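Quick start: load a record and inspect it. Here is Site-2 protease family protein:
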Amino acid sequence: MNTLLWVLVGLAAYSAAALFLSQRGLLPSSVRIQGPFTTVHTKRGRDFIDWIATPKRFWRAWTNLGVGATLVIMAGMFFFLLVQGIAIARNPPAPSSVNQPQNFLVIPGVNDFLPLSVAPEIIFGLLVGLVVHEGGHGILCRVEGIDIDSMGVFLFTIIPLGAFVQPDEESQREASRGGRTRMFAAGVTNNFFVTFLAFALLFGPVIASIGVAPGMAVQGAYDGSPADAAEIRQGDRITAVGGVPVGNESSLDAALLGTNERTVAVELDGGDSAAGRESRTVDVERSLVVAGSVAGNPANISVDDEPIAVTAVNGSPVYTRAGFAEVVGEDRYAELETDRGTVTVPVGAYLTRVAEDGPLAQSGAPTEPGVIVTAIDGQRIVSSTELTRVLDGTEPGETVTVELYHGGEIGTRNVTLGENPQDGSGFLGVNIFPGTSGLLLTDFGAQSYPAGTYLELLGGDGGPDAVGLTGAVADSPLATVYVALVLPLASLVLGIPNFPGFTANVFNFYTVGGPLGFLGTGVFLLANVSFWMAWINLQLGLFNCIPGYPLDGGRILRTSVEAVVSRLPIDDRNRVVSTITTGVGVTMLLSLLLLIFGPTLLGG
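Running the structure step on this input writes:
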């Protein structure tokens, strides 16, 4: 039985049990059940809301600003969901981690992209989001003279989904249409304001107080690799190799390529004095292994769990990447002896993508995956490292001769280079698979943690290896919103691990200083709280702008349609209003259901 079926069975059982208890009067009067949904009501706190609502002019002016923004976002959400729903219905995508139903819930540990390690910060952000949202409704109720019948929490079975303020229906009907609209818009207005405040804190003094520690941050080591055998673990920082200081991943790579010694001394900062791993030196006995591969590589090798050992190249034993490059020399092909057999492959940098409008494609080169760059201007390219190094030494507008392998043949193209958006050097317009010929070939095996890239994306200084936003997105005033949306999904959007926040296991990768340096590691807690508070409040605001009942967007849609229809020469205005709002609401419901369940139920 799959997960979705278990969920559906659980919902049916809960609904049946709740109905049984409700019909027999076994539930308190404050608890109300509708299928799998539960609401808990209370009348406490109304006097406090009356006190806060005293400056009525301020609150009206505040929500008038929010109404305009909400209407624009409502229109955007309508078209987004409509287009997505139609696309999924016409061509359902295959189920993947991003479109699993549980990943639409803001529940750490259940949602694959919300780690349990920052559950307290996420829950706190959700609590703040719900309080300011429903508090906004309650305040504007009293500003507009609408009585509050009750307040409470809204649950999906036992999972809290939100809080609510329930206006008195009669006094709500008597309020002006503008007053009701302001009341409905107050919640999302407050959510977006909290998002702005959290962004201002995060992208301002918080990130300015965090720097990247010198060395290469270790995400982990490939199972069975030399680094794994030397017990180099997640949380370590590699600070030197063979006495050569290491400042980042690039300098580690250069240090390893700079020596052909099989055994190298690696200096580590573990950052954990309690575990006796604060700093140490380990000897790593290097051996050449294939730790990963891309589908369709010319060696037809697929790496599962254990790396594949490379024992010889062209009949000569090799232990390092430098030794590999030396044995290959100027040959375009090499015979690899592995523990899975012997295979002959073209040797070069494997391109996973050639942009159709990029410089390489414009030279007439093939655009399908599988193109291998073997030389540039006569300089031999053995791996992705050499290709990146050669391109770093070129200029935009420079014309170079690129030698390519594709379809069993080697040919050349004259390419006029574009400009690399990251560093301004020459640019081919390609994506490069790390390693050689579609094989992640390594003599070390430590995986880097993108500490600098995370910091760069959050507006800090991530150092020379960091990759930030580029192009139109980077220049947009909404760049911070984009970052907040995609960092928890970074593995799908940016090709790096999903951002877990600044948790204790990554403290060793950063330094603290600047305006909030006096807080010490408390800066990381503040960064986590502000990041997740911004992310959650943004999600709450956007979701509630969907123009469908009972969401705020659906209620604002009704008051807006009423305002327009009231000016038309129509007899039965209520029917027209109901037809329009019901049609839009049903469309949004179907689109949401397709978005959440479509890939699982309809996908291949």
